[in-house]
Design a protein that fits this description.
This protein has 6 helices and no strands. By secondary structure, it is mostly helical. The protein has one domain. α1 packs antiparallel against α4, α1 packs across α6 and α5 runs antiparallel to α6. It is elongated and about 55 Å long.
Length: 134
């Protein structure tokens, strides 16, 4: 047990950003893929005001959102343009949080947005394909 604790104390700071980045990648990609698989279930989350302002259908907006999440989720997974991808995803998640409002979903989205903001602040980690200076 002591060896495990010692390993975590010495190697944890190196691997923590990787675990966080991949954890957020799974969440982002899962939501993006689900929006393509079951689009109609996601249209209920699109505010009427956004449909009215954009002049696009709720279905089209869900497809656009899913495309955004998959593209930037893949960039995050690969570690390409990590800071840019994480910042855009964090802003996106904060916007979703404000749209959803206070409640169990909004609080969850706040945690996801904050975690993605930390990925942005960390920048490229040891497994990123681009920008890794460590």
């Amino acid at each position: 047990m002591q060896k495990i604790i010692s390993y975590i104390e010495t190697q944890g700071p190196i691997w923590a950003p990787v675990v966080l980045r991949y954890g957020m990648t799974v969440v982002i990609l899962w939501f993006g893929i689900q929006q393509f698989i079951n689009t109609e279930a996601w249209t209920a989350y699109v505010p009427d005001s956004v449909v009215s302002l954009s002049h696009l259908s709720a279905t089209t907006l869900v497809y656009l959102n899913a495309t955004f999440e998959i593209i930037f989720g893949v960039l995050l997974a690969l570690g390409l343009f990590t800071r840019i991808a994480a910042l855009l995803l964090a802003i996106h998640l904060f916007e979703i949080m404000f749209t959803v409002g206070y409640g169990e979903i909004g609080v969850r989205d706040f945690g996801l947005a904050a975690a993605t903001l930390v990925v942005f602040m960390n920048g490229p980690d040891i497994l990123c394909l681009y920008g890794n200076t460590k």
